[in-house]
Amino acid sequence: MAATPRGTSPVPPDVRPRLTVLSGPSGVGKSTVVAHMRKEHPEVWLSVSATTRKPRPGEQHGVHYFFVSDEEMDKLIANGELLEWAEFAGNRYGTPRAAVQERLENGEPVLLEIDLQGARLVRESMPEAQLVFLAPPSWEELVRRLTGRGTEPPEVIERRLEAAKTELAAEPEFDTTLVNTSVEDVARELLALVDVV
Ligand SMILES: Nc1nc2c(ncn2[C@@H]2O[C@H](COP(=O)(O)OP(=O)(O)O)[C@@H](O)[C@H]2O)c(=O)[nH]1
Ligand SMILES: Nc1ncnc2c1ncn2[C@@H]1O[C@H](COP(=O)(O)OP(=O)(O)O)[C@@H](O)[C@H]1O
User: Fold this and answer.
1) Alpha-carbon distance 41 to 72, whole Å?
2) Known binder of ligand: residue 75?
3) Cα 50 to ligand 1 centre (Å)
4) Would you say residue 180 has pLDDT above 70?
5) Which ligand does the CA of 33 lie closest to?
6) What percent of the chain has pLDDT over 70?
7) What's the pLDDT band for 1 if we cut at 50, 70, 90?
8) Which domains does the chain have, with CATH numbers?
9) Count of CA atoms in the C-beta half-sphere (13 A) of 63
10) Is ligand 2 within 6 A of the CB of residue 30?
């Protein structure tokens, strides 16, 4: 057995990153890919964020998001209850800290689906986190998906596409890029990265 060089620590038994961040522009397919993966692998734990955005038809409180008022969001932030938070296209979004911490302390994998600003904050506070970028096959396809989803009025779509330009330019900051051409393929690749055993 090779000796451990002096001055370095032995490699810990499990060096796999437990925290995975999935980011990518609005409409690229993050929710679709994660939902597809969790349909077959419900054991993959996804953090449920708090948001001041209004629910879309079909979105459930506590499942897709915790839908909160501006005042409630102020309190969550002031009380330090969010691991990170950001303003995106006119609404605030944040990751509740306690549930994530509990899982990480138990050595369980955690998946966050958050925006670029949030991904950068996580990288600062947890450098061991792995950052995964979901990219569209092309700009035209991103516009098509965001428009085709039909959940936002044109001015909100414009705002999100403006943000998408900044987000696409930040792709090199991420550890891995997955191009969302096929939902099935990307869901499989993401599952391997999240490494749920
Ligand atoms: N920083 C941060 N971003 C979040 C959080 N939850 C969701 N987001 C991001 O906020 C952005 C807008 O989310 P949403 O309004 O659901 O739109 P969608 O991504 O187009 O479905 C997306 O980039 C989400 O990944 C969070 O807790 N923190
Ligand atoms: N690989 C794909 N091919 C074609 N359409 C897709 C694909 N992935 C997602 N979509 C569609 O694109 C739209 C945006 O997907 P969504 O998951 O809501 O994106 P995000 O969560 O990143 O905002 C939805 O209408 C969804 O059905």
Assistant:
1) 32
2) no
3) 10
4) yes
5) 2
6) 90
7) very low
8) 19-194 (3.40.50.300)
9) 7
10) yes
Q: Ligand 2 within 6 A of 92 CB?
A: no
In which residue are the tokens 């705002």 written? 159
The mean pLDDT of 110-137, rounded to a whole number, is 97
Residue 146 has pLDDT above 90, yes or no: yes
DSSP 41: -
**CA 31 – CA 21 distance, rounded (Å):** 13
- The pLDDT of residue 195 is 79
Q: How many residues does the chain have?
A: 197
Ligand 2 mean position, distance from CA 149 (Å): 7
User: Minimum-distance ligand to the CA of 95?
Assistant: 1
Centre of ligand 2 to C-alpha 31, Å, is: 7
pLDDT over threshold 90, residue 188: yes
DSSP 145-187: HHHHH--S-HHHHHHHHHHHHHHHHTGGGSSEEEE-S-HHHHH
Q: How many other C-beta atoms lie within 10 A of the C-beta of residue 155?
A: 9
29 Cα to the center of ligand 2, angstroms: 3
